Amino acid sequence: MVTIEHLGKYFKGKKVFLTGHTGFKGAWMVQILSMLGAEIKGYALAPEKDGDLYNLINGNALCQSSIVHDIRDAEAVRRELVRFEPDFVFHFAAQPLVIRGYEEPLYTFEVNGQGTANVLDALKFLEKRSVAVMVTTDKVYENLDDNTLFKETDKLGGYDPYSASKAVAEIIISSYRSSFFNHEKIDVHQKSIASVRAGNVIGGGDFADNRIVPDIVRAIKKNDLVTLRNPHATRPWQHVLEPLGAYLLLATKMVDNDVKYNTSYNLGPKKMDVLTVEELTRIAIAKAGKGSYQIEENQNKLHEASNLMLDIDKAKRELGWWPKFDSRTAIEKTVEWYLDDETDATTKCQRQIQEYFEQHN
Ligand SMILES: NC(=O)c1ccc[n+]([C@@H]2O[C@H](COP(=O)([O-])OP(=O)(O)OC[C@H]3O[C@@H](n4cnc5c(N)ncnc54)[C@H](O)[C@@H]3O)[C@@H](O)[C@H]2O)c1
């Protein structure tokens, strides 16, 4: 079981270089890492809105330093990473939205592909033992919508630019691992590199547009109808703390064994724990005690895979990682976070972080 005490043994007083620290997952990660006693250096663009989670938790006060700069600037990434001499690197920074990928494909490929290469390349110049966990997504697989349960060895692909850009990132990670961070020369380069493929996450403090749970909560709060674009699509819904707990656990395993875990891991809910968008909406409405929804009839929508399921046996077998919250709990915790206007964001997050890590699988 991943507990705060266990993680603290690896992270207390250690230096963590976290890209994308101002984003949704990044802000939760900053809070966990600061609870673990790590020194954090963040590298990302500024939070998009004043009300973003990073600002609500006063993220700048939790980081030793926060660099607001573009991940596409290879020289800056190298300078900031190498200067900090991190024990751990977590690469979260990305253009993470499918819809924006259609609108700005070139930017998406640059940030997600080149940005990933920049972080890996910077690691070549770091003369220190370091563990890097590179975040991609469950959308990296060639998805023919035929109910495949994707394994890590399945073919990479990507219909839309976002998915393809993350598949590109996976290929870049694999190439750097083979070419520059090969396990045969671990004593020379001292780098352990893994990639993690998690699915859609939900949790309090995600204020991005076009993400289903924030959309639902916004509509409930305004007494509007919730509009569902793909009511029958299934997604492996997961609380944001699940992948973050897994990334941290994986990093500890990589400290204990610097070659065994230098590979890719799927992270998602249990096989049977998959809900449709409509089911998710019903659970959220039930938890909120109000709200109703409508289904959008527009047939000219952009292509988005309807079904996406991950086989997570490798993470279970090799890392001993297994989800703690089922989809229903994840949705309920999320709705609870948003609808509690009395408590400040830091307290709400800290409370859920404690609950999560104390929970048995
Ligand atoms: N949220 C999800 O459901 C989900 C699912 C699968 C994978 N992921 C992946 O997890 C990671 C974090 O996602 P998130 O949900 O926190 O996204 P987010 O949009 O909330 O945060 C993205 C972060 O990346 C930074 N960033 C974006 N463009 C940048 C640039 N050009 N230069 C420097 N920094 C830049 C932003 O400043 C921000 O800190 C991403 O790699 C994403 O693809 C997210």
Protein topology:
Elements (H helix, E strand, L loop, with lengths): L3 H8 L3 E5 L4 H13 L2 E6 L8 H4 L2 H4 L2 E4 L5 H11 L3 E4 L6 H6 L1 H20 L5 E6 L13 E2 L10 H19 L6 H4 L1 E8 L2 E2 L9 H10 L3 E4 L5 E2 L2 E2 L1 H16 L7 E4 L7 E2 H12 L3 E4 L13 E2 L2 H7 L7 H13 L5 H14 L3
Parallel strand pairs: 1-2, 1-4, 2-3, 4-5, 5-7, 6-15, 7-12, 8-11, 9-14
Antiparallel strand pairs: 10-13
This protein binds nicotinamide-adenine-dinucleotide (NAD).
Nicotinamide-adenine-dinucleotide binds next to helix 2.
Could you characterize the architecture of this molecule?
Helices cover 45% and strands 16% of the residues. The protein has 361 residues and is an alpha/beta fold. It has a 7-stranded parallel beta sheet with strand order 3-2-1-4-5-7-12, with helices on both faces. A two-stranded parallel sheet has the order 6-15. Helix 2 (24-36) links the parallel strand 1 (15-19) and strand 2. 48% of the residues are buried. Nicotinamide-adenine-dinucleotide is lined by residues 20-26, 44-45, 70-72, 92-96, 111, 135, 137, 198, 200-201, 208.
